[in-house]
Write a structure and sequence with these properties.
333 residues; alpha/beta; Rossmann fold; six-stranded mixed beta sheet; four-stranded antiparallel beta sheet; binds adenosine-5'-triphosphate; binds iron/sulfur cluster; binds magnesium ion
Amino acid sequence: DDTILDVSGLSLDFRTGRGRIRALRDVSFPVRRGRILGIVGESGSGKSTVLWSILGLLARNAEVTSGRIAFQGRDLLGLDDEALRAIRGEKISVVFQDPMTSQIPVLPYARQFSDILYRRSMSRAEKRDAAVELLRRVGIPDPEDRIDAYPHQFSGGMRQRAAIAMSMLTGPNLLLADEPTTALDVTMEAQMIDLMRDLRAAFDTTIVVVSHNLGLIAEMCDDVVVMYAGEVVETGEVRDIFHNARHPYTRALLECDPARVERTGGRLPVIPGDIPDLSASLTGCIFAARCPRAMPICRTETPPDVARGTGHARCHLLEGPGADPDWPPPAGV
Ligand code: ATP
Ligand code: SF4
Ligand code: MG
């Protein structure tokens, strides 16, 4: 079986002063070993919540109401804190948008790297060598000296490189990256993508990357999960989705004016309307209020999750009484 991580039927609420927010609704997707999977969706669609669920680092007011997250066959949701910490320290690692959230300003990199290896029986010199080697790999010049620097002595791009080096130090099986390039300029972003692809090849690490940036997903990823308002509306291989999107939301993302994508630096286009109120109980399709193809059935019945091409899409147009044999139209129409 080539599935390293399998999220299935995951539903999650946040308890707030104004009631419950259903942040994830029956989220399912497999992550295949050695591949790069991108999660894309508007702000508030639940992308980070999915990553935090995998890491076992959810906010206190979060409550998983159903589902499983199987990592190498074990359900992460059933593990205690100690077991999760061990997995996070060795097998699953994470890179954030802002490297300062994972780097300690008052400690030189040498110390931060060796702390990551606290579980290993290695000498100080061995740990230092391992860290220097990784800094070199991610393109930090003079790593033998730079390893003694503090984070503020690095530029933003170098800090992100250092963050990626830290996240790879234990040779994790799975790397989770939450908008790792959003804070960077376009050139640096491209370098970072190359870097993560290289590391994937060198360490055989599977990567899950969250992004607003469709261009980045197209360039970097093998597979994509499209989220909308806490639901996975479509999944599939990137080359399939980019040519044959089957969900109206995915199509709306892809068929926008290319000049506009250019202007927003490849970031998600703005689709008219708002994400539905996540606190209200929802009937019908979650995208109905904004969907140009919405039909009466879309407001009353939950759409079926239909297997198509290399993945799935949730839409009445694909199956059942609302099915349209001419849907989806060829790309670009
Ligand atoms: P962005 O692109 O802005 O990072 P996202 O897709 O990562 O968005 P999440 O951060 O996962 O979205 O949030 C999903 C929903 O859950 C949002 O409506 C958000 O406001 C809500 N939410 C997230 N964390 C909490 C929390 N601790 N308490 C209450 N609501 C929360
Ligand atoms: Fe649009 Fe209906 Fe499909 Fe939802 S189920 S995406 S409203 S056509
Ligand atoms: Mg987020």
